[in-house]
């Protein structure tokens, strides 16, 4: 994996590129696994040797990285893939479920779940990103635009689509969807380019992920990522929730530009609030102890969505809270986050 690291101190900064052989795996915004030491000095600068170490990967070392101050803060930012910024999530074991005893009865079961490492999109997929996908899919002949009960509807016609008869992707209707179609091109509405895409069905979310070789998260992956490696109750920077940390409970009254609030410890934004995020399968219930990478399955009736939305009260924004999501549902409250798994 190719990464950019930036050394910052005071008002000074220096950026360099590094290559981690065998896939990367550095945590965004964390110094764990990094070391630095002064290598040389001039009258105005100190030159450092920066070393990145990760089990199973070759050591990366940068000689003579220069900065004008003594203390260092090393920030790792992965490069974008198809215009989507991913952050690496290290594998680990966590308590999945209503650890806090604050949710609904079907969430009360708590299980020990172990997950392999993966990479998750730092932000919810935006209107601009989804419009780009639609234009690419239209050019490939994978979708068609129809006039239906909800206005313009996007249907999938790709020969590879695995669920024949279930091809409804997106409702471009009323004022809720923020993507427009002029008969030739899909475009994000002005000023809404970086808002999360909404009015997308599970099929539209899955089709977007498959188009780029990504995945929708399982419920276990989503909750683990939301908790930020800290068993946080909410997916915020410190695990607490208020109007300075998330778009929820109508404190804004609509969706907002992704990344408008502080990230959680994994470098993920808007894990609580803004829009519910569609998961790959149905609700994960009655997990066994020490489950490894549970999927939850993909039945044909309902999937799950997570994280709450701009109008949700705090209970829906809990890390453990999940909701049933009909495969053909679409509204201005649900959107997409995608991930990459090892070996992709």
Q: Based on CA inertia axes, which overall geometry fits? A: globular
Q: Biggest sheet, open or closed, and with what strands and sense?
A: 4 strands, antiparallel
| Poorly predicted regions | 23-44, 67-76
Order of helices and strands: EEEEEEEEEEEHEEEEEHHEEEEEE
Rg: 21 Å
Task: Give the helix/strand class.
Answer: mainly beta
Write down how many β-strands occur, each being a DSSP E stretch of 2 or more residues: 22
The count of helical stretches stands at: 3
Across the major sheet, the strand order is 7-8-11-22
Strand content: 25-35%
- In round numbers, the mean pLDDT is 77
Distance between the termini: 11 Å
Q: Classify the helix fraction into a percent range.
A: under 10%
Short descriptors:
mainly beta; globular; 3 helices; four-stranded mixed beta sheet; 344 residues; 10% helix
Written account of the structure:
This protein has 344 residues and is mostly beta strands. The protein is built from three helices and 22 strands. A four-stranded antiparallel beta sheet has the order 7-8-11-22, with no helix packed on it. The N and C termini lie close together (11 Å).
Offer a quick outline of the entry:
Helix content is 10%, strand content 32%. The chain has three helices and 22 strands.
Element layout with pairings:
Elements: E1 2-9, E2 12-19, E3 34-41, E4 46-52, E5 60-67, E6 73-78, E7 80-81, E8 84-89, E9 92-96, E10 111-115, E11 118-121, H1 127-140, E12 143-148, E13 151-156, E14 168-172, E15 179-181, E16 186-188, H2 202-211, H3 219-227, E17 276-278, E18 291-292, E19 302-306, E20 322-326, E21 334-335, E22 339-341
Parallel strand pairs: 10-18, 17-21
Antiparallel strand pairs: 1-2, 1-6, 3-4, 4-5, 7-8, 8-11, 9-10, 11-22, 12-13, 13-14, 15-16, 17-19, 19-20
């Amino acid at each position: 994996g190719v990464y950019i690291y930036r050394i910052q101190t005071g008002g000074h900064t220096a950026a360099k590129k590094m290559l981690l052989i065998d896939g990367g795996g550095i945590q965004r915004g964390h110094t764990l696994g990094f070391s630095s030491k002064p290598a040389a000095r001039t009258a105005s600068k100190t030159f450092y040797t920066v070393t990145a170490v990760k089990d199973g990967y070759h050591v990366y070392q940068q000689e003579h990285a220069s900065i004008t101050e003594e203390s260092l803060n090393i920030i790792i930012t992965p490069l974008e893939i198809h215009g989507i910024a991913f952050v690496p999530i290290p594998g680990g074991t966590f308590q999945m479920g209503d650890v806090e005893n604050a949710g609904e009865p079907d969430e009360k079961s708590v299980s020990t779940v172990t997950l392999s490492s993966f990479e998750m999109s730092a932000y919810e997929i935006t209107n601009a990103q989804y419009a780009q996908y639609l234009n690419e899919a239209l050019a490939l002949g994978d979708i068609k635009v129809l006039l239906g009960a909800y206005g313009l509807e996007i249907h999938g016609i790709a020969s590879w689509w695995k669920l024949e008869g279930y091809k409804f992707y997106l409702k471009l209707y009323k004022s809720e969807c923020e993507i427009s179609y002029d008969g030739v091109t899909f475009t994000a509405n002005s000023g809404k380019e970086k808002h999360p895409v909404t009015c997308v069905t599970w099929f539209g979310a899955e089709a977007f992920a498959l188009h780029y070789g990504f995945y929708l998260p399982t419920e276990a992956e989503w909750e683990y990522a939301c908790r930020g490696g800290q068993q946080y109750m909410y997916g915020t920077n410190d695990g607490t929730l208020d109007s300075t940390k998330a778009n929820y409970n109508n404190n804004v009254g609509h969706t907002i530009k992704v990344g408008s609030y502080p990230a959680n410890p994994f470098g993920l934004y808007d894990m609580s609030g803004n829009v519910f995020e569609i998961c790959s399968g149905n609700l994960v219930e009655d997990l066994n102890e020490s489950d490894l990478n549970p999927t939850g399955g993909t039945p044909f009736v309902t999937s799950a969505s997570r994280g709450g939305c701009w109008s949700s009260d705090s209970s829906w924004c809990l890390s453990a809270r999940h909701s049933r999501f009909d495969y053909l549902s679409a509204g201005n409250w649900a959107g997409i986050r995608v991930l990459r798994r090892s070996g992709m």
